[in-house]
Amino acid sequence: MDEYGLQKINLTMALISRTTVFPPSAACALAFALTASFSLYATAQDNYEIQVYGSDTVPPRSTMVEIHSNFTVEGSKTVQDGVLPTNHAEHETLEITQGINDWAEVGFYVFSSIQPDGGWQWVGDHIRPRVRVPESWRWPVGVSLSTEIGYQRAAFSTDTWTWEIRPIVDKKLGPWYFAVNPALERSWHGQTVNQGVAFSPNAKFSYDFTRKIAGGLEYYASYGSLDGFLPLRDQQQQFFPAIDVDFGPQWEFNFGVGLGATRSTDHLIVKCIIGRRFSWPHGSGAKLNNSQQ
Questions:
Q1: DSSP character for 174?
Q2: What count of other Cβ atoms lies within 10 Å of the Cβ of residue 194?
Q3: pTM for the full predicted model
Q4: Which parts of the chain have pLDDT scores under 50?
């Protein structure tokens, strides 16, 4: 990353630290407004669900509903390989995850995009079953495995049918948290079918500054096919200084500002994830209880 990129990271970290004193809605609004002043060239990429997974699954008889809001402040400005530009596009993803038992869940995604001059459009849908190592096994780290398959319209992705398998390993050490997702991706229909399996690692570390606020760095990348990684300039690599705020056991909140480190990456993205867990009755006469994990 060049000197200007490092200056952007320093400025973004300062922005994140200042937004922690505001309510969630104010923090998102402030960061969206301030980051609109940055400018760099970037090529097209998909940014609908920007998240490093932890190993936990949603408990049985519970449903997690999340909204992923990602705004590309500076991205591609022209149609590339038939894909619409990302510059100033707002991506909204609805994620609904249902707990099956103590070690399994199923998630469903609805992707949408709001183009600056094209209105709100449906992009596609994915389904994601996931299993984890039960806590009763007493492994020293959390481990789970998800697989995701789905469809995206050709106007928004060069690959319309895709598959992903994502190992997940994480660990909590006092105030520190670490997670790594060495994902493997495969296109079943589209431009990269002949490239085989691609390697797309994600990682995260954070530190609990208070009982309610954790801050750290998230990393997202796509290196290319396992048969031979792409040159660095053609890889996708992003760094997201991010915060997580604990508003209660049934809530999830994550906010970050992403900086692209290569020419093939959208160079400035603001993301905000808000989730709410709902727990359901154990029987027909039970009352709804939202306090259960």
A1: T
A2: 7
A3: 0.80
A4: 1-45, 284-293
